[in-house]
Amino acid sequence: MTRLITIIALLIVKLLSAQSMSESKMEKALSFWQQSKNEEAKVLFEEVTESDAGNWLPYYYLSLLYTADAFEQRGNQETMKRLLETAQGFQDKANNLQPENAEVLIIQARILTGWILVDPMLYGRQNSADAMYILNKAAELEPENPRVALEKVLFDIGKAKYFGQDVQGFCGELQRTKELFATFKPETALHPDWGREKLAEALAKCNE
């Protein structure tokens, strides 16, 4: 009995130590991201996926980062495709772990939007419908989540621009999103809390 208790205690200590190390790496990865050191952040996030495969957050951040990289390569189809495929690989893991998580859903919608940018004629119709469905589902799950509101209005703005429509009518929705950011508190320091810079850029265009 004493030996069994000792083994259990050692396993618990080992588990807690691994969790502590994963959290430390996550904190450092997020710090790198905030400093725009995205490649360094990716390395650490991938290390966490290897040691803590049941944690959705590193997969989420990797998908987010690779999708952002893809958007920055707009106009370079092959590079965009490669980055979006990489993002989807990590996204699939996050989807499996958190299928009803609004934060996860909006990154899936961003990936679909990325494919529209790769080839609007090929992917536009189906992906637009799928992305809107996903964003609406995310809004139902977390109507007060500022990133959900922001991604939804930015998608609407992008769609309106594509069809040559006026986008000034969306400025009020952006202001509401700003109010949501003002009161939002992430579950922990490791949970998603980004989007304010994107919102500021969108609001600035409303004042041009």
TrEMBL record:
<dbReference type="InterPro" id="IPR011990">
    <property type="entry name" value="TPR-like_helical_dom_sf"/>
</dbReference>
<protein>
    <recommendedName>
        <fullName>Tetratricopeptide repeat protein</fullName>
    </recommendedName>
</protein>
